TrEMBL record:
This is YjbR protein. InterPro entries: YjbR-like_sf. It comes from Sediminibacterium goheungense. It comes from the Bacteria.
Length: 106
């Protein structure tokens, strides 16, 4: 299990990252672009992966990762069950999500 505060700390450790409220969640963004969100009550986070990256994580055993519903999920938005994820895996997907935002041109 990964506590919500630990996930938030990992996200905020990415360069140029800040946090803002996003509906009932906490959003993590770089230069106004959200790369992850956290719902601290349900212990579910979302990371913006590419569809290719998402397909890799959806193959992992257990129900750690699952796609967001609708078009967001098809675009790569992936929910993470913090009750089942470990720190190493959380860092890995956060780095990917942050990098996906970082590499996009404005």
């Amino acid at each position: 299990m990964l506590p919500a505060k630990k996930f938030a700390d990992l996200a905020l450790s990415m360069a140029d990252t800040d946090t803002v409220p996003h509906f009932d969640k906490q959003a993590f963004r770089k230069h106004t672009k959200i790369f992850a969100t956290l719902h601290p009550v349900t212990l579910v986070a979302m990371v913006k992966l590419t569809p290719e990256q998402q397909s890799v994580y959806l193959q992992l055993p257990g129900e750690i990762f699952y796609p967001a519903s609708g078009a967001w999920g098809k675009a790569g938005c992936t929910h993470c069950n913090l009750k089942m994820i470990n720190t190493k895996l959380a860092k890995e997907v956060l780095r990917l999500a942050w990098g996906n935002i970082h590499l996009k041109k404005k």
